[in-house]
Amino acid sequence: MSVMSCPGCAGTPLAQEVARNTPAAYAGDTVSVSLPEIHCATCVSGVERGLSKLPDVLEARVNLSLKRVTIKTRGDADEDGLINALLGLGFEALPLDAATLRAGEGDAVGRGLLLRLAVAGFAMMNVMILSVAIWAGAADATRQMFHWISAIIALPAVAFAARPFFASAISVLRVGRVNMEVPISLAVLLASGLSLFETMAGGENAYFDAALSLTFFLLIGRYLDHRTRAAARSAAQELAALEVPSATCIREGAPVRLKAADIIVGDLVQVPAGGRIPVDGVIDTGRTQLDRSLLTGESMPIAAQVGSKVVSGEVNLSNPLVVRATAVGQDTTLHRMAQMVAAAESGRSHYTPVADRAAQLYAPLVHGVAALAFVGWFAATGDVRYALNIAIATLIITCPCALGLAVPAVTTAASGNLFRKGLLIKSATALERLAEVDTVVFDKTGTLTDGTPILQDLQALSPQDRGVVLALSQSSDHPVSRLLASALEGMQVVPTVLSDIREIAGKGVCGQDGVTRVHLGKSSTSNGGTMFQRDGFAEQPLRIDESLRGGAQELVAALQSKGMGVELLSGDTEFAAAKTGARLGVEQAWGGLTPADKIARLAELQDQGKHVLMVGDGLNDMGAMAQAFVSISPASGVDATRASSDIVLLGRSLAPVKDALKVSRRARARIRENFAIAVCYNAVAVPLAVLGFASPLMAALAMSSSSILVILNALRVRV
């Protein structure tokens, strides 16, 4: 379809015309529509102003970051009418299921972590102020009063702020495992409990500030970790949202608007020009061109007519259709694809973060040392309080905070570095997995190529033939014909006057140039490209190539120079895939693949022990991207594909993918260094704590110092 990219300022007359011709809706419905082409404030203004002029639209609000508009109407919304209105305003529009999207919206976890972080920080600062007074010499009744005030501040704050760590620790202990939150929770609870005991017993020392500072630093790490995943969304959910939520069916000779769930096999479904097909079926009435690029990766539109099979998710480019449904609901191709993606995602989720792997060794060791210290000192002194002080000092000084920060601090620094290079990291473990990649698999259309067609061989046509080709192409709505017409008009070619022009679906356009029959259409050769022919003469090829995405050649060459495997998996024809592979020097180039074929190939590579990075942009790539060890999607890809990927490429060039691989390996090195810092620190600090030379207060200060050292080392990944 042809749409304007930013018509906002000139939309008023057109909006008024749309308003006069848009079917009325009723009260209280909400529609979500994807607007993949909007990119600026003028676009937002054009959409909102144009829709607000429609008689039955109560409100229209655009979310530019999500490229989505939410429309409130006065009744059961006419999605087709609203989609057509947006197309009339000049914006490509795709329907989304608002209920499906609302299920994954909001960031309650992030807001909750920020609130807990604020509470812990506020309480820590107040308790430290009181501690300064005690350190300065406050004694007896004054000291006891300050201890009780500290307890009143600290205990509720710890109970609230440290809850995420307590909940995580309990959940893994119930199944007989440990993670980093187990020693963290134990240290916080014991420090708080001992401090309360010392306060009640009139002791000189209380360590509420240690418990709060430990909680505060760890919440920083937890929030940093959450922020790296804040943009992530379930790919299966986004894919389900692309399923057309409702459609117009013909029942008993009259059109009826039905929810997708109410359509049954055998129904006649109306599909407007520019609309997405909601069911699998067979064309009953009409002829058109279908865009299958998002589903299959085929770069060229496909001719379809009465009797042609269509599947859900394809876009009807040219003319209105009536489709007889053969599969609906959960049996459609699009829904089965969503299930396939969900299954692939669940398999990849078994990857264990490096922090949890470290916790499997760290937690038992720390707990054992602290327990031995308690038993040893209690046996030596008979003083439970003294032995417990040493055990708590041992737990605190073993720096669970440094270990807790080791990964998120590096991940956040690396994510910021890559964002400036044009890459958005979405998954918490993406960098860890990316550092292990040894094989890179690319989609073709929209990934290695940017989808912009390049015409060749026009100069080889004679001036007379150029005029004939222009006349034939101007008589057809096929996208290739429009491309030819635009190119020839730009060359100032004058169309030849032809007679008896006819278009044959799937074949091309024929006409009469004087006494000679002329034909513009599909070649009879094996590559099936476009050609022009005069009767009695050989075909003249008109090659249409896709332009390579910027940085593609450099990236492939760099990967191969590092000894990494590179493959191309495409739903386009084998000829097109092989041609693009040859241009890039990729020997393993496979064409004609279904989404299931791509998943199977990635599974085969993984069975060989390969760690695969998948780079793709279409719906047909989503299953493979979920199956892959790690995945990257260009920002130009569909919303659902970006949601299924671990990393989003924000710019047009593929060059930053090389930076991502480099930074991920650097980040892995920094993470290992952070763990080494923690281990070396513990090798010195633990003996001091066990031997009784470090009080819980000294342990807390040492722990804070180690945390700062870890954060400073993490920043080196940005260099």
Topology:
Elements: H1 12-21, E1 29-34, H2 41-52, E2 57-63, E3 68-73, H3 79-89, E4 94-96, H4 98-102, H5 108-135, H6 140-161, H7 163-174, H8 181-200, H9 208-227, H10 235-242, E5 246-251, E6 254-259, E7 268-271, E8 280-285, E9 288-291, H11 293-296, E10 302-304, E11 309-310, E12 315-316, E13 321-327, H12 333-348, H13 354-381, H14 384-397, H15 400-420, E14 423-425, H16 430-434, E15 439-442, H17 444-448, E16 449-455, H18 463-474, H19 479-490, E17 499-504, E18 508-513, E19 516-522, E20 530-534, E21 540-541, E22 544-548, H20 552-561, E23 565-569, H21 574-584, E24 588-590, H22 595-607, E25 612-615, H23 622-627, E26 630-634, H24 639-644, E27 647-649, H25 656-690, H26 696-714
Parallel strand pairs: 15-23, 15-25, 23-24, 25-26, 26-27
Antiparallel strand pairs: 1-3, 1-4, 2-3, 5-6, 5-7, 7-13, 8-11, 8-13, 9-10, 9-12, 14-27, 16-22, 17-18, 18-19, 19-20, 20-21
Helix pairs in contact: 1-2, 1-3, 2-3, 5-6, 5-9, 6-8, 6-9, 7-8, 8-9, 8-14, 9-15, 9-26, 10-12, 13-14, 14-25, 14-26, 15-25, 15-26, 18-19, 25-26
